[in-house]
Design goal:
The chain has 260 residues and is of the alpha+beta class. Helices cover 38% and strands 14% of the residues.
Length: 260
């Protein structure tokens, strides 16, 4: 059976065995990650957190003012909250000490969206990989090294973050070469067709996928998703977010959905 676990200061429900697209912005959207050394430190702490808490990382992107993380929580106890807490807190602490700075580094909450497998997964990966192209910073994802695209295209010998085996399994691929070809094909299609628009479904929904998948997520959430609506978005289905911010519930102790 599925269980809920608390993710401090996040506005999302997590269910074991699903893939989650997590996004988190720097405080007031400031460009606190504009230096490559700080983006590399975020990746360093992500590597340390993965070693400590587990979970399968399927993609990531560190931009100048926010991060994307595509991760599958496949542990007995939910590891995502612990992983995120370690990465975000250590990155902020190091930055503030170096800059002799005080105050928040990250926005109050990060957001997570459940992503269906196969075609939905590779399209979400492409959306993440195209982030800096969309921002006009680079012309191709290969030009931005702090990304999962680069790690898949140019595999590291050490300090690997992406769980290639888990990713191939979700995409029904048999080799790294097939994964590289599929990734490049989707990127080429996005660039050739100038698919640079921001698509909020990947970052603001509770779930994105087939109708069956979204129904499953809603049913697993049960009463906690009672007010959430399933909507068709082009050829996809999404479980929409509530218009009113709410405090997340992830542990066995119930808390009110609406903040006081």
């Amino acid at each position: 059976s599925k269980k809920f676990h608390i993710m401090p200061r996040a506005n999302r429900y997590f269910l074991h065995g699903n893939i989650w697209h997590i996004t988190h912005r720097c405080h007031k959207k400031d460009f606190l990650l504009s230096l490559r050394r700080d983006r590399i430190r975020w990746l360093h702490w992500l590597y340390e957190a993965k070693k400590r808490y587990g979970g399968s990382i399927l993609n990531y992107m560190v931009t100048c003012n926010h991060i994307h993380l595509l991760v599958m929580d496949n542990s007995v106890e939910s590891s995502i909250s612990k992983l995120m807490q370690l990465v975000q807190s250590r990155t902020a602490q190091e930055y503030n000490i170096r800059k002799d700075r005080k105050g928040a580094f990250w926005e109050d909450r990060y957001h997570a969206t459940a992503i269906d497998s196969e075609d939905y997964l590779i399209r979400c990966m492409t959306y993440i990989n195209m982030n800096m192209v969309r921002a006009g910073v680079v012309k191709h994802p290969a030009e931005w090294s702090e990304s999962g695209y680069s790690e898949i295209a140019f595999p590291k010998k050490r300090y690997r973050l992406i769980d290639i085996s888990a990713l191939m399994k979700e995409l029904h691929l048999n080799s790294l070469e097939e994964l590289q070809i599929k990734q490049n094909d989707y990127i080429k299609e996005a660039i050739d067709n100038k698919l640079f628009e921001r698509q909020s479904k990947w970052t603001e929904s509770i779930a994105v996928g087939s109708e069956e998948f979204v129904e499953k997520i809603k049913n697993q959430l049960d009463i906690k998703a009672k007010s959430r609506k399933i909507m068709q978005y082009e050829n996809d289905y999404i479980l929409s977010e509530s218009e009113i911010p709410y405090k997340v519930i992830f542990n066995p102790k119930n808390e009110p959905l609406r903040s006081k």
